[in-house]
Specification:
Two copies of one chain form a homodimer. Helix content of chain A is 39%, strand content 15%. Chain A has twelve helices and twelve strands. Chain A has a twelve-stranded mixed beta sheet, with helices on both faces. The longest helix of chain A has 19 residues. The termini of chain A are close together.
Chain lengths: 346, 346
């Protein structure tokens, strides 16, 4: 499979049409930072985004509508290729920026579903997804809280049942999350032996994709000081430590549970401070995301592990407050595209 | 009160005798980074620490036993003054480094109690506490999970009932915690309207001490994305947002609740990235400590807010794994001493 995937382009999904997704996509192409990629989206929405960027002083690229991914080969460089999936709602080019709109939620979902179809048909090699807005998504009747859950369901529908985990990564830290969009109370309930072990296994398997067949995996505790021997909670003793032992019995180089407040610092890998671990398994959303985002969200890339394909996304949201101004930066999307190429090529 | 406090020395408590506390204290004096301070501790323990440091190539200072804080004035510079509190267990100088020992827990508690006495008698101006080991503390029969709770109880015993909060601070970020050493489940239960409002009030009042009478306070949410409008938990809507409104009604410049995964990044204050807020109120221990510690624990200082005196401590633990080797760095203790001087002088 590796060689053909290598030549396949990356599909970029438009995200919520009222958010900054269309603008950062156009900006990434304008900066020539989206090589061998095409957009799944709405022509009118992307044209409007290009106009906003021009008004903000950015020299936008010309747009070209394509009928299939293979048409990419016929386009001159510097053009932004757009493939419109079937079933996009009408009037998307007129939605108000920064406003929750069910049509935008429906369009975002249609683009993601089309991307899965294309990849599983062998027409694209990976996907990078621009941000959707969860309330618009819910307003469109989507039962999924976000991309990750939709992608898992779509994979299953195509005969690839997938247990997925979210990884957030930047140059110096990779964290893989046991759960994502749950209230914190329910996230604690979700810390089970099976969930922790499975997260470690998914992370271990995925790391081969970026060239680390035997990654050093740190597992964070749940409670302050990882429970300090049971004084502040017993999930470490009852659940997490046994899961680490089970992972090691499978030949995985897992360690922990470690005190959450220092494990990310210990894994941080920068010149002069080599990380003690290659990735950290975090017990809940904010435990893992706070350290990756601390130095600036633009550096972070969201990677979905466990899918039958590579999917990355920027780690910011729709930024409704600046949508339509042409001011949004494309750095995190560019990093997501770079990561997608890296992982799909491996 | 300000002028006399200014001239009073800082009391440094020894911490757990089997941990790195005695070594980092001696090292701070060896580096001449502990001006106008004395140690509450055991002579034999500190002599042993000085020997370990000499064996590690550090030119240790001479020790001088003093009978009261006022004796400090008679000592030549470069000497490490030690005041032995009454009731220290015998044989402390022979305890094994890196081992939980009830005698070490008892000694650590005795030093802290003596420091409170000295400050409230007007003989010391502030305290910096070296780390204790919570299991040794418990083994000694202490009912408190850590320093903070002991200090609040001691203040109350002296007629100063204090509601305290822990702040962790480094050069670029200050976070104040609603709760500290609770299992995460119980920490969620502790997020009440009163607890959040009181934390904001304590933080606001304390900030005057470091010269910010009207600090910009960010309040973090509890759930991913601060609940995203109720989709992932309702504590933000039910509890935290009303507490922020109540704080604002009191004239406090409080904002939020904000998404936990980005609020610390937003408050981070470095050249080229001015923080949007002066401090962040965090809903639980690891939410607030992960970002402060991420760039390296040595930079972090723990400050107890709400006490009738200034108390700081390094933000690392007893480091039993390297105790007795003379290798522990004193940077965080030195930062704690600097912060204590800064706050007590204000």
């Amino acid at each position: 499979m590796d060689a053909p995937l290598r030549a396949l382009p990356c599909a970029i999904t438009m995200g919520d049409a009222a958010g900054i997704g269309p603008e950062i996509i156009v900006r990434a192409f304008a900066q020539r930072q989206a090589p061998h990629a095409f957009v799944l989206g709405d022509m009118a929405v992307l044209r409007r985004a290009a106009r906003w960027l021009r008004e903000a002083g950015v020299d936008s690229p010309p747009l070209a509508q394509i009928g299939q991914a293979a048409d990419l080969a016929d386009l001159p460089p510097g053009v932004l290729p757009v493939l419109e999936p079937a079933g996009l709602p009408a009037g998307l080019g007129q939605v108000e920026p920064g406003r929750i709109d069910a049509r935008c939620g429906a369009a975002a979902a249609a683009c993601v579903r089309a991307a899965v179809d294309l990849i599983l048909r062998g027409e694209a090699g990976a996907m990078a997804t621009a941000p959707l807005h969860k309330e618009a998504f819910a307003a469109a009747g989507e039962p999924y809280p976000g991309h990750t859950e939709l992608l898992a369901a779509e994979s299953a529908r195509h005969g690839h049942p997938a247990e997925v985990r979210m990884m957030l990564a930047n140059e110096e830290l990779k964290t893989v999350l046991v759960s994502v969009h749950l209230p914190l109370r329910r996230a604690i309930d979700a810390v089970s032996f099976d969930a922790v072990l499975q997260t470690v296994r998914i992370a271990h398997a995925a790391a081969a994709g970026w060239g680390q067949p035997q990654p050093r995996i740190a597992v964070a505790g749940l409670n302050p000081h990882a429970g300090e021997g049971g004084l502040f909670g017993d999930e470490e003793l009852r659940i997490i430590a046994p899961a680490v032992v089970a992972a090691r019995a499978l030949g995985i180089d897992a360690h922990g549970p470690f005190a959450p407040d220092t494990v990310f610092m210990r894994a941080r890998n920068v010149p002069g401070h080599p990380g003690e671990f290659d990735l950290v398994v975090a017990m809940y959303h904010d435990q893992g995301l706070i350290p990756v985002k601390y130095l600036g969200v633009e550096q972070g890339v969201n990677v979905t592990l466990g899918l039958p394909f590579v999917r990355t996304s920027p780690d910011h949201g729709t930024a409704f407050d600046i949508a339509g101004t042409g001011r949004a930066h494309a750095a995190s999307l560019v990093a997501a595209l770079r990561m997608a190429r890296l992982l799909a090529r491996a």
